[in-house]
């Protein structure tokens, strides 16, 4: 019998060293050299843009009637990242030479809003731009003072139309980032804006306004078009307006086959986890009455336990019992109680994001609720769009409070789904509609399948939907198979193959770990009721006891229920450990359903570039095409994340599959090592695989507003390594952190020794320095490699100034007998940590007061040795490691062990 055993904390000795070499032996990103004639069109475009900029600036000054001081805001779109990491040192030069201070950075910092903080210096910008525009088209700009202008894609003035963004009624205005260069004018305009909004509210020209606690946005309700235009005309400290109206849900369809619910969900006798349901209210109908607590209503209805639509009530029922809801049992004991946080009355209403965040903080502090469900989304994300204000506020809240929110990825619009099935087009056929950036139809573009705000949140868990509806007798409708992502489920909006400002992102500036959703759960299929889930109705008419529904709204509470079960078992683990264990337990599935579409895109691009089909290309040409096309594996990850959590793996270890958990901290600019001792019995294996070790790292971030690349300012990553010394973890950390460590000298090649002698005596050229560093790194990786060499780290940090970072990473390693022998039965898990530089002033204090950073590492170790009568891995790991049973409530553990004895 393979018993349900508790997970184990790994308490082995660890070591650390205050060292992190962030340099890299590769050149900085720069623009490709072009024929001088190629700049002609670029010059013409910039000339027209700058002429328009001057006109727009003059017009804006004439429009103003409310503010005494002006702050000119210019938007510049770059062809390279705006940073000091590039050859042109744009961050320093644009401030020091041109008087331009960045106040908002988007499009992975290729689009920047600048405040003109020195008009005299800005004239230098004007002069250099004119020199570039008027330069001889036969003379290359490289090496000239105006060469920096070749980094620009476009320039424009930030006009009132840009700020108001066609929004009216209920909306939010983003504030630009304040800094020392704009502070005086910023504060003046803020004071005037507050007074003006107060006056509008008194006279009934707006219903109300609220400013968020972090001073990043002002939320206005009931603003007419004229009011919005007037605000946008006057206040330079506003970046852009956004609407936060909830996406509509599909029409109700009721099942008349049953005339009663026939279901009772009972409260657990033990204190159960409480889940906050952020939705349109929970109606305590008979099946769930016992598990519904009271609630908090931030709408005008004043009753959190009333609901005009069954959406929140259905979500609550699934959060309480999870997948067991679909077993057909009449009596179910709940895994969690539910607390209603009513954020909407009608499902297409406006979401008051400030009140939502305040409500979460309030019920967490007063009721101790840590888990929340948000199955209500707003607008979808454009490709590579920056994190929204809603996501920022939720991420900031999670960093400050002990909470975890499960957020729906969002559904495609129901009317669009209907229209797509009525019009025959290859793009509308599953799964082509998810990702096909080269084509579009009159009613669909693959951008319409991107996740909805705030599903891009990094500190929380985003959930997509599989087409499964827990009804084995029915078939799917739009999706190909129940085990595949549902047709309507939305995908990751980051696509590093897409052009930004007319140029492609460097491979160094992308990040394979930045994808959403994190997980998927069954959500049913559309449009046929046979493919949908049968969920609770209100029973108002005597026939509507059940309804058919589908969506990520249903998948999300099913995932959250698993988290509740995990916390019920292990009440003291951190919420980042919950996230890490859930992701580490997830099983992905084949991406073959996407391969045909990828092949078509390769063929289409090959014909466009080489005028031949992909199969007729030579090896080099195929490689060039493949680099430009997102792989089936990448697309699948963008749709399905890490896959569906396996309940048994999530909740329990077993005799042959053990989950180890590390909850620890790592200081900034440190390397840290944790040792995992491998049981001796595995050396008796004749199988090529002995152990499969899968590891997931999760940590919370303190987000940076208005800086896309630095939104996550914290880098933590990990790797597997050989334990080259056994007696001192600190020394081992020092060896791993330093490629120049004396430990590696015994493994140096003759070429390294020759270059090192030359360096010591007469010095090296730049190319020789790069070569020496590369050779030393190669030796280091060979020495530290568990196999032939060290694999890439879970996340690459370089270049730190231009690399967007993830706070959720996963790696696996399979150990064969020879690997275990090489490492002397001791595997090293190495971690490293760094913080971004040049952060805005509001994060500088955080850096000073936060010298170390908490993380959770979930490690699943599986015995694949196939040794006859093999020992139990669970016991053998305990024998050779310092392990501690995670405090748990596994009630059948003692009985299982007694039965086994």
TrEMBL record:
<dbReference type="GO" id="GO:0004252">
    <property type="term" value="F:serine-type endopeptidase activity"/>
</dbReference>
<protein>
    <submittedName>
        <fullName>Subtilase family protein</fullName>
    </submittedName>
</protein>
<feature type="active site" description="Charge relay system">
    <location>
        <position position="279"/>
    </location>
</feature>
<feature type="active site" description="Charge relay system">
    <location>
        <position position="553"/>
    </location>
</feature>
<keyword id="KW-0378">Hydrolase</keyword>
<keyword id="KW-0720">Serine protease</keyword>
<dbReference type="GO" id="GO:0006508">
    <property type="term" value="P:proteolysis"/>
</dbReference>
<dbReference type="InterPro" id="IPR034074">
    <property type="entry name" value="Y4bN_pept_dom"/>
</dbReference>
<comment type="similarity">
    <text>Belongs to the peptidase S8 family.</text>
</comment>
<dbReference type="InterPro" id="IPR036852">
    <property type="entry name" value="Peptidase_S8/S53_dom_sf"/>
</dbReference>
<dbReference type="InterPro" id="IPR050131">
    <property type="entry name" value="Peptidase_S8_subtilisin-like"/>
</dbReference>
<feature type="domain" description="Peptidase S8/S53">
    <location>
        <begin position="273"/>
        <end position="592"/>
    </location>
</feature>
<dbReference type="InterPro" id="IPR000209">
    <property type="entry name" value="Peptidase_S8/S53_dom"/>
</dbReference>
<keyword id="KW-0645">Protease</keyword>
<dbReference type="Pfam" id="PF00082">
    <property type="entry name" value="Peptidase_S8"/>
</dbReference>
<feature type="active site" description="Charge relay system">
    <location>
        <position position="311"/>
    </location>
</feature>
């Amino acid at each position: 019998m393979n018993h349900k055993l508790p997970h184990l904390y790994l308490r082995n000795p660890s070591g650390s060293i205050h060292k992190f070499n962030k340099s890299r032996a590769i050149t900085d990103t720069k623009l490709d050299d072009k024929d001088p004639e190629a700049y002609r069109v670029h010059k013409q475009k910039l000339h027209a843009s700058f002429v328009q900029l001057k006109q727009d600036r003059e017009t804006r000054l004439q429009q103003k009637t409310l503010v005494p001081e002006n702050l000119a805001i210019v938007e510049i779109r770059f062809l390279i990242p705006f940073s000091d990491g590039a050859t042109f040192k744009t961050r320093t030069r644009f401030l020091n030479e041109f008087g331009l201070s960045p106040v908002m950075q988007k499009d992975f910092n290729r689009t920047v809003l600048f405040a003109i903080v020195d008009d005299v210096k800005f004239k230098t910008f004007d002069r250099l731009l004119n020199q570039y525009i008027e330069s001889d088209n036969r003379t290359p700009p490289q090496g000239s003072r105006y060469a920096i202008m070749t980094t620009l894609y476009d320039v424009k003035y930030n006009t009132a139309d840009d700020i108001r963004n066609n929004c009216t009624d209920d909306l939010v205005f983003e504030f630009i980032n304040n800094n020392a260069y704009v502070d005086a004018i910023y504060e003046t305009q803020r004071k005037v804006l507050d007074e003006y909004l107060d006056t509008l509210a008194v006279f009934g020209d707006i219903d109300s306004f609220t400013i968020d606690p972090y001073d990043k946005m002002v939320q206005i309700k009931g603003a007419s078009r004229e009011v919005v235009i007037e605000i946008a005309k006057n206040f330079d400290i506003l970046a852009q307006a956004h609407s936060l109206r909830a996406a509509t849900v599909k029409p109700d369809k009721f099942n008349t086959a049953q005339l009663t619910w026939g279901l009772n969900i009972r409260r657990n006798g033990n204190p159960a986890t409480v889940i906050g349901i952020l939705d349109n209210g929970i109606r305590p109908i008979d099946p769930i009455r016992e598990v519904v607590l009271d609630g908090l209503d931030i709408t005008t209805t004043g009753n959190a336990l009333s609901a005009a639509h069954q959406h929140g009530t259905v979500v609550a029922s699934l959060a309480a019992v999870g997948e067991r809801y679909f077993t057909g049992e009449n009596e179910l004991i709940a895994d969690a109680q539910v607390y209603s946080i009513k954020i909407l009355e009608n499902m297409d209403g406006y979401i008051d994001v400030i009140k939502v965040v305040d409500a979460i903080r309030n019920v967490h502090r007063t009721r101790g609720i840590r888990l929340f469900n948000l199955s209500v989304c707003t607008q979808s994300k454009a490709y590579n769009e920056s994190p929204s204000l809603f996501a920022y506020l939720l991420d900031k809240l999670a960093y400050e409070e002990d909470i975890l929110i499960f957020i729906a990825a969002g559904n495609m619009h129901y009317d669009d789904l209907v229209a797509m099935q009525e019009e025959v087009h290859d793009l509308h056929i599953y799964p082509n509609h998810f990702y096909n950036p080269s084509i579009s139809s009159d009613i669909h573009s693959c951008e319409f399948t991107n996740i909805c705000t705030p599903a891009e949140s990094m500190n929380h868990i985003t959930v997509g939907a599989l087409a499964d509806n827990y009804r084995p007798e029915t078939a799917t409708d739009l999706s190909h198979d129940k085990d595949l992502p549902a047709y309507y489920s939305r995908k990751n909006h980051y696509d590093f193959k897409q052009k930004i400002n007319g140029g492609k992102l460097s491979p160094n500036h992308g990040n394979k770990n930045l994808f959403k959703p994190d997980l998927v759960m069954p959500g049913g299929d559309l449009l046929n009721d046979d493919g949908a889930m049968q969920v609770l109705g209100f029973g108002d008419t005597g026939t509507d006891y059940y309804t058919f529904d589908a969506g990520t709204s249903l998948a999300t509470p099913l995932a959250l229920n698993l988290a509740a079960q995990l916390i019920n078992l292990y009440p003291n683990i951190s919420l980042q450990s919950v996230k890490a264990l859930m992701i580490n337990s997830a099983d992905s599935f084949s991406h073959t359903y996407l391969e045909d579409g990828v092949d078509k895109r390769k063929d289409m691009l090959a014909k466009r570039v080489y005028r031949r089909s992909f199969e007729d290309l030579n090896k080099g040409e195929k490689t060039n095409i493949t680099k430009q096309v997102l792989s089936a594996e990448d697309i699948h990850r963008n749709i399905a994340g890490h896959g569906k959590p396996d309940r048994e793996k999530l909740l329990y270890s077993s005799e042959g599959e053990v989950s180890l958990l590390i909850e620890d901290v790592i200081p900034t600019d440190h390397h840290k090592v944790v040792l995992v001792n491998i049981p001796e019995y595995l050396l008796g294996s004749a199988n090529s695989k002995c152990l499969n070790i899968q590891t997931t790292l999760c940590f919370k971030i303190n987000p940076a507003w208005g800086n896309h690349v630095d939104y996550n300012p914290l880098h933590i990553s990990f790797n597997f390594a050989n334990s080259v010394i056994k007696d001192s973890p600190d020394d081992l950390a020092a060896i791993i952190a330093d490629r120049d460590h004396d430990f590696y000298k015994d493994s140096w090649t003759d070429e390294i020794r020759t270059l090192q002698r030359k360096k010591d005596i007469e010095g090296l050229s730049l190319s020789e320095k790069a070569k020496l560093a590369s050779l030393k790194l190669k030796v280091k990786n060979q020495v530290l490699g568990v196999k032939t060499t060290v694999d890439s780290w879970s996340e690459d940090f370089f270049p730190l100034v231009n690399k967007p970072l993830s706070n959720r990473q996963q790696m696996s390693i399979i150990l064969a007998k020879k690997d275990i022998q090489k490492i002397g039965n001791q595997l090293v898990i190495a971690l490293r940590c760094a913080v971004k530089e040049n952060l805005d002033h509001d994060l500088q204090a955080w850096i000073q007061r936060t010298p170390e950073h908490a993380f959770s590492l979930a490690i699943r170790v599986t015995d694949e040795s196939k040794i006859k009568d093999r020992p139990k891995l669970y016991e053998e790991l305990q024998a050779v490691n310092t392990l501690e049973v995670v405090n748990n409530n596994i009630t059948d553990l003692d009985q299982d062990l007694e039965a086994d004895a």
